[in-house]
Sequence to fold (307 residues):
Amino acid sequence: MSTSKPNMRVSCAGLDLRNPVMTASGTFGYGEEFSEYVDLTKLGAYITKGLSLRPRPGNPTPRIVETPGGMLNAIGLQNVGIEAFIEKKLPFIRTVNTPCIANFFGDTVNEYAEMAGRLDELPEIAALEMNISCPNVKHGGIVFGTDPTSAAGIVAACRKATKKPLIVKLSPNVTDIVAMAKACADAGADSLSMINTLIGMAIDLGTRRPVLANFTGGLSGPAVKPIALRMVWAVSRAVKLPIIGIGGIMTATDAIEFILAGATAVQVGTASFITPGAAQQIAEGMEAWMLAQGETDIRNLIGALRV
Fold:
């Protein structure tokens, strides 16, 4: 058993991170909301709620429901919009010595590119994460993240609009996630975060109606972890980009599993609803696990799954 601290630093999408743990978009506000519970300087990075050009009120309630092994959400991408983000959220972000990654989205290719350009101008933002699980309103509502050609087009447009590291968040609601990953890589992505939520439903037997006002929502939490692990493993073998693993990471050992499967970093999401300090606890737990195992460098475990 080693007595010296292991190296936990990783390089991901051009960012030098003090450890591989990030927070997942939509589960951590804009950072300040959780600063009472988490020492942000103990994380590798934190990611904002998804941002759009204009404010969005989100979906009607109820829009969150607990399920066995996880939760369903249909928040509807509620956010303050880019102008309010710059005015009201950036002042706090400037005070934190941890990379802030801005998650963003749009309804059209032009909106995505405009958002990428606006965020590119903000020195406080270290990198951009594209949420491509949104419908293209100009092309019949097809979700950008379910069609390789659409995904490649939108990534290419954003690549032209920003010089910052560009992370693409992949949807698991596809037939072939490897094809999606390859399309995004070829179009200029610097990294892939995966997976976003799976589409699910809950029913109230008393009313015989869907629990969520939106009828369906995104399933996250421990229930999706095996699916996420398989997808990370498959994509890591096919695409030479750093992968950020997401899906049911509740403990340090969950996070280590994603690293072994091929992820360079991980994001903690649903766990923060249960334990607000979960991300920091997982980062510290990973270091303790490494020390107990006699591992000296987290980078030695990336993709080290024995198959």
